[in-house]
Automatic annotation (TrEMBL):
Organism encoding this protein: Sphingobacterium gobiense
Entry's family note: Belongs to the TonB-dependent receptor family.
Annotated ranges, domain TonB-dependent receptor plug: 123-232
GO process terms (BP): siderophore transmembrane transport
Subcellular location, principal: membrane
A GO MF term: siderophore uptake transmembrane transporter activity
InterPro entries according to UniProt: Beta-barrel_TonB_sf, CarboxyPept-like_regulatory, Plug_dom, Plug_dom_sf, TonB-dep_OMP_SusC/RagA, TonB-dep_OMP_SusC/RagA_CS, TonB-dep_rcpt-like
Signal peptide location: 1-30
PROSITE patterns listed in its UniProt record: TONB_DEPENDENT_REC_3 (PS52016)
Name listed for the protein in its UniProt record: SusC/RagA family TonB-linked outer membrane protein
A GO cellular component entry from the record: cell outer membrane
Length: 1007
């Protein structure tokens, strides 16, 4: 017995001793350690960080949400490394969930930047390439990424003219380079063009975006040749990383309201307006007053009033839910995301939903071959009948909303038939659907892994296909007082194919380093549309479901085909990380031009000098971390026109002859031009990049000048030619400007940091020539020596007063003047108001813009405050101008005054329809400064997160368009405002929509 006990004791002791020895030697059972890696200054998640167990071959990378998972035992050391950040070590303790913050490295010049058909170290870049701050790409309630960029990048002017849910903002990079061509930048996603495929930036889910670079100068954009004259925006989406699969949920929800409410007048103020209008126009009010119309009389008698703005507006809501899955092994990586975005507009009926799905994959079947895909599907839904805000602003509070049977009244201020019920079209249910299905793939061969002497030589094939169908179905029947019924079905679709063959070779020997990129690409786009319209239906039951039942039917269709081919060669050379040269030449051919000038050649050259790497700068290392001088010159192009514009086209029309209908051909109004050639923009750029005191202060200052010539202008022709116009190469436009970007790390402590980013840009645009004869084009408002977009109008000198009219002061000056009319200045001095008194009063584009971002972090909290300013822009104020004969009828904004014999206003005109007979546009400053967004976020400590079963949690609250400082009278100086009954670029007044302010609460979870 004693022997058995001793044996068991010895066995147990041996096992205990073995366990202790194993523990002491670090051979313990490994445990999965999960965590999230963030930027210590901005708190943004970092993807692609290498996480390795020191002394082992065990390593992984963080995924698109900064999350990682790695097996390690207690006491082992994790090493975190990432380009642009200081290495970080972490000794494993008891916790299995880790939060890691990496400090930005002083050597940020080693950061890789996407430059088009490849990437470069920031220190080697010779052109102007701006990277969008990563913190702008998350935690902001935006529909598309351009809204997040707005104001945050110098000389990238993004204007949200329409806040309608789902609408795209307009974007310009370094001014307007053309007088009539498209001025939007070229957008490339994962190497495949999104622009000119009929896709939109709304197709790209902001949650899927990893980085955004903007190419601005001729050297940087030259590799895109014909597509680069307006700048290039490169978007890279997130991809998978090797390691344990990670699931991330990102979501937010919030409310929206007008950023500024344009209140109408009160019922009492409207009655005073009616009385003044009746007096000044010598017209009678209904039943002797105090209202104008029959329907108003009934409500006035009964004391019934309606707040029409309240009737058509509502509290908007916004929500977004995104689930992403990423992971993989060393040879197979994947990223998958599903996203839903929903927005209920602040004007009834303006709703928007987007559903998107993306999958990015990368596979390494062999050591020398990598293949992958970048596929996405986006579905947009803008269904629903919409209220009309312009009509609502005009409604009298005494106007009738409903008939006795509960239907909406057609003319709420009957017998006035100028203004329809603003809710009338909410009774319809049109369909507005749009889709984008894109499948892009690549295959890359690394010849160096096949044969060592070929090291550095790679071939990449990019292939892309996008299918973009759109449809609009609508019907108007008895609910909108159309007794006959009217239905319409409109379908359009485009299919775009892109093929790119890219050969790259990179080599270093001694202090010399060069890389070569060669490209051969082809693109084809087929577009078609068809439309069917029916009128006079037997009933409204089927709506557009059976247009064949209509008594009158009309069917139209059209199609076109676009094709292009391109060749490009680029050579980068660097010596000792001090001197860099870039030479690029691209040749493009497009089917839109005639047989004589289908091809264009676009060369560029750039040089850079890393002055801080010179030996004579050795004594400044404690102060100067980076000092680089850059200079570039190049030519880019713009095709600007749609297919078949260079040809004289014919239409088929029915012709009655001999009692029979025959087809007859006739020329269209546009003359062909086989000699039409590319619009070309030649530009010079010089800049300096700097970093001081350990990069506590860093930035870029650039000056540029571009000249666009051979512009594509639609030239008017004398009618005797048989044609109305022809596309011609005429005119020259110049842009000069300065870009400034400054970043400072004001305070950097263990628990607290404060950083500031400032951007400033100034652009001066002017027309050098138009038609070669030195003459202005008054009809298009094009004036030599001035910007393309100007305000050309009279100058208001005040308001004509009764005593001035009585004294005859208007005689010989303004014979049509009456008391209360706009007094215009006689600038020509000829004693009479005529066209000679009009002058250029301002420009529609801002003279300068700026942005200020302050980011504060305290432990796990982060506060980001962004202020945007736009200065020097001018617009005609539609709210003040309006239509002259509507001033006495509509419930105009309360802030809009009017002249009376008692107040003798010298600012506001009278309510007479003759108070502005010269059509003065009332131009006003559209400058503003806006508290664009404020975001407060909190990163839950890893120990707390592990208790709820997740590896990372970020909670945040964000407000957008919180306050605007401006003198503008209207909804907002940026917002589109179209007068009633007018159209602007085929957009009617029913799409006027206020700028919105929103407040959201969001969460990012990583599992």
């Amino acid at each position: 017995m004693l022997k058995q006990i001793t044996k068991n004791y010895y066995k147990a002791f041996s096992m205990l001793l073995c366990a202790m020895l194993c523990l002491a030697s670090g051979i313990a059972q490994e445990t999965a350690r999960k965590g999230v890696v963030r930027d210590a200054v901005t708190s943004s998640e970092l993807a692609g960080v290498t996480v390795a167990v020191r002394g082992t071959s065990n390593s992984t990378q963080t995924d698109a949400s900064g999350a990682f998972s790695i097996s390690a035992s207690r006491g082992q050391v994790l090493v975190f490394t990432f380009v642009g950040y200081e290495p970080h070590t972490f000794t494993i303790g008891q916790s299995t969930n880790l939060d890691v913050n990496l400090q930005p490295s002083d050597n940020v010049l080693e950061e890789l930047v996407v430059v088009g058909y490849g990437s470069q170290r920031r220190s080697d870049i010779t052109g102007s390439v701006a990277s969008v701050p990563k913190e702008r790409l998350s935690k902001l309630p935006v529909t598309n990424v351009m809204q997040a960029i707005q104001g945050a990048v110098s000389n990238v002017n993004i204007t949200q003219a329409s806040s309608i849910p789902g609408d795209n903002p307009s974007t310009q990079v370094r001014g307007l380079n053309s007088m009539s061509a498209n001025a939007s930048p070229y957008i490339v996603v994962d190497g495949i063009p999104l622009s000119r495929t009929d896709g939109s930036i709304n197709d790209i889910n902001p949650n899927d975006i990893e980085s955004v670079e903007i190419l601005k100068d001729p050297s940087a954009v030259a590799i895109y040749g014909v597509n680069g004259s307006n700048g290039v925006i490169l978007i890279t989406t997130k991809r998978g990383a090797s390691g344990t699969p990670q699931i991330r949920y990102s979501g937010y929800a919030g409310v929206e309201e007008p950023s500024h409410m344009l209140d109408p007048v009160s019922p009492e103020e409207l009655l005073a307006r009616y009385a003044e209008y009746a007096r000044i126009t010598n017209t009678s009010l209904f039943n002797g007053g105090p209202v104008r119309n029959e329907y108003e009389w009934d409500n006035y008698q009964n004391g019934v009033t309606t707040d029409w703005l309240d009737a058509v507006m509502q509290t908007g809501t916004i929500q977004n839910h995104n689930v992403g899955l990423s992971g993989g092994s060393e040879n197979a990586k994947y990223y998958v995301s599903v996203d839903y975005f929903g927005q209920k507009g602040i004007v009834k009926g303006f709703d928007y939903k987007r559903y998107s799905f993306r999958t990015n994959t990368d596979f390494n079947p062999t050591t020398y071959l990598t293949v992958g895909t970048s596929a996405f599907i986006a579905a947009h839904n803008r269904d629903g009948g919409r209220a009309n805000l312009t009509q609502a602003l005009a409604m009298s509070p005494y106007a009738r909303m409903y008939e006795d049977d509960g239907t909406l009244t057609r003319w709420p201020m009957y017998s006035e038939q100028l203004w329809e019920n603003p809710l009338l079209h909410t009774t319809t249910d049109p369909e507005r659907r749009e889709f984008n299905m894109s499948l892009n793939g690549y295959a890359e061969m690394n010849f160096g892994n096949i044969w060592e002497p070929l090291s550095g030589l790679k071939y990449r094939f990019n292939g892309g296909y996008s299918y973009v169908p759109k449809r609009t179905n609508e019907y108007q029947g008895l609910s909108v007082y159309n007794a006959n019924g009217w239905g319409r079905i409109h379908n359009a679709e485009s299919q775009t194919y892109t093929v790119e063959n890219i050969l790259t070779y990179e080599k270093s020997f001694g202090l010399h380093r060069f890389d070569f990129t060669g490209l051969y690409a082809a693109r084809s786009k087929y577009w078609q549309q068809s439309e069917a319209i029916g009128e006079v239906f037997p009933n409204d039951v089927l709506e557009w479901g059976n247009l064949g039942t209509a008594s009158t039917q009309k069917v139209t269709s059209s199609a076109d085909l676009y094709r292009s081919v391109s060749q490009m060669a680029r050579l980068n050379y660097g010596y000792d990380s001090r001197y860099m040269l870039t030479f690029t030449v691209r040749r493009d051919g497009a089917s839109v031009f005639g047989p004589n000038n289908k091809y264009g050649v676009f060369p560029s050259a750039a040089a850079a000098w890393n002055i801080h790497n010179e030996s004579f700068m050795a004594n400044t290392k404690d102060i100067i971390d980076n000092l680089k001088l850059r200079v570039s010159y190049g030519v880019s192009g713009n095709e600007a026109i749609t297919p078949y514009q260079t040809r004289s086209l014919m239409d088929s029309n029915p012709l009655g002859m001999g009692g029979l209908s025959s087809a007859a051909l006739r020329y269209r109004h546009r003359m062909g031009n086989d000699d039409l050639r590319w619009e070309k923009t030649a530009g010079f750029n010089t800049g300096v990049d700097f970093g001081l005191w350990g990069n506590r202060l860093s930035g870029t200052i650039e000056f540029y000048k571009t000249n666009t010539q051979d512009m594509l202008i639609l030239q008017r022709l004398p009618r005797l030619t048989g044609f109305a116009d022809v596309w011609s190469n005429l005119g020259k436009v110049e842009n000069t400007g300065i870009d400034v970007t400054l970043n400072s790390r004001n305070i950097v402590k263990d628990d607290f940091s404060w950083s500031t980013a400032v951007v400033f840009s100034h652009n001066k645009n002017r027309i050098i020539d138009i038609y070669g004869d030195g003459r202005d084009d008054l009809g298009n408002r094009w004036f030599i020596g001035h910007p393309v977009g100007v305000i050309y109008d009279y100058t208001q000198a005040g308001i004509w007063q009764e005593e001035e009219i009585a004294a005859g002061l208007h005689r010989g000056w303004d014979e049509q003047a009456e008391a209360g009319a706009v007094k215009l200045a006689d600038l020509s001095g000829d004693g009479i108001i005529n066209d000679d008194d009009r002058r250029i009063l301002g420009q529609t584009a801002p003279k300068w813009t700026g942005g200020l971002t302050n980011t504060f972090t305290y432990r796990d909290f982060s506060l980001n405050i962004f202020i945007q300013t736009v200065q020097g822009a001018m617009r005609n104020n539609v709210q003040i101008g309006g239509a002259a004969d509507e001033l006495g009828r509509r419930s105009a904004p309360a802030d809009l005054g009017y002249w009376t014999p008692d107040n003798k206003s010298n600012e506001w005109r009278s309510l007479s329809n003759r108070s502005n007979v010269y059509g003065y546009g009332f131009p006003k400053s559209a400058s503003f400064t806006r508290l664009k967004d404020v975001t407060l976020s909190y990163n839950l400590p890893s120990n707390t997160a592990s208790r709820i079963g997740v590896s990372g949690v970020t909670l945040y609250a964000s407000g957008r368009n919180l306050y605007t400082w401006t003198s503008w009278l209207g909804w907002d100086p940026e917002s589109r405002d179209i007068p009633r009954g007018h159209t602007q670029d085929n957009v009617g007044d029913n799409t006027n929509y206020p700028m919105v302010r929103n407040y959201v609460f969001g969460v990012n979870l990583t599992f």
